[in-house]
From TrEMBL:
Reaction equation(s) it catalyzes: malonyl-[ACP] + acetyl-CoA + H(+) = 3-oxobutanoyl-[ACP] + CO2 + CoA
Compartments, record wording: Cytoplasm
Pathway(s) this gene product operates in, as recorded in its UniProt entry: Lipid metabolism; fatty acid biosynthesis
Documented EC number(s): 2.3.1.180
Secretion signal span: none
Domain Beta-ketoacyl-[acyl-carrier-protein] synthase III C-terminal: 247-336
Top-rank taxon, per record: Bacteria
Gene3D superfamilies in the cross-refs: 3.40.47.10
GO MF, one example: beta-ketoacyl-acyl-carrier-protein synthase III activity
Region (ACP-binding): 264-268
Identification of the protein by name: Beta-ketoacyl-[acyl-carrier-protein] synthase III
First-tier enzyme category under EC: transferase
Gene name, Swiss-Prot/TrEMBL: fabH
GO cellular component, one term: cytoplasm
Amino acid sequence: MYNSKIIGLGKYVPDNVVTNDDLSKIMDTNDEWITERTGIKERRWVKEGSGDTTATMGVKAAKMAIERAGISKDDIDFIVFATLSPDMYFPGPGVQVQHALGIKTVGALDVRNQCSGFIYALSVADNFIKTGMYKNILVIGSELHSHGLDKTTRGRGVSVIFGDGAGAAILTREEGNKKGILSTHLHSQGEHAEELVLKAPGMGTRWVNDILADNNEDDESYFPYMNGQFVFKNAVVRFSEVIMEGLMANGLQKEAIDMLIPHQANLRIAQFIQNKFGLTNDQVFNNIQKYGNTTAASIPLALTEAWEAGKIKEGDTVVLAAFGSGFTWGSCIINW
Ligand code: UT7
């Protein structure tokens, strides 16, 4: 019987810091609104010409994770890459990582579950390890949002929230079923697909040539849309449900949580969950203040920084949870 265990974590964020005050110079917004509603003070946005892409940022985070895991790239049996912002429409960035790192021709899977992407990716990797099929799996979450945001007042409800960055983890086989990833729990509710969505370009909506032919500046379909309040209300319910589901599946009470790392969607959502589960500030790790919402990268970025800060110790019960576009949501319960 096997479990999977995280033995290496890495991160990468672009150098370019964009503060709330910087945004107030390009659109009608202000630091007070953004801080009060989201907790975000600044985010990283890739600078044009820097060479950073979703794939290259993922590669940098992966290199750090591999080094910290103390393994070689040749030990990696499989790659899972979660993103909603791939460099190319197809193929996805998993294969770019395989090539850039010079990993042998192992499988590379792309996961498209937006804010829940990293939990979905971990779940896939964990189950490949639990079945005995693979031993070491590289899991990456990376996003380059900034090129695709509407950075005018029209898009301010979305663009002030999202940031760029990447995180990565190495999962390895662990004998027995007491340590490492105990379980993952995944959900979806497609009836709300259009409440947090990027509609175009899409084969079922409008492809690039339709957009170019229309040449319509009022067309918003190729910018992300979010029904913020509706998403918020669903998020707080689903976060709580899926954390409880994970705890109960392992016979744990909420008091067992040593560290909760919620997807960094909004500091107010994280604080709501913290209060609901009766956790102290030391038991919840947030870094949305520095990075904004980095979607599939947010959990590995936060997990890496929590680990770097010495906030996660061997034997701790670590809970990861996410909710986002789809709607999709999920949790992961770890005995670290
Ligand atoms: O990661 C995936 C999951 N995502 C989430 O969980 C996000 C969940 N939702 C949220 O976090 C919040 O809904 C937001 C932070 C996105 C928005 O906060 P809100 O309190 O729901 O604001 P709102 O959209 O209802 O807008 C309130 C007002 C509006 O003005 P009026 O109509 O009241 O005059 C907006 O036009 O705030 C205005 N507004 C802004 N003002 C200044 C919207 N964006 C901005 C802005 N700066 N950036």
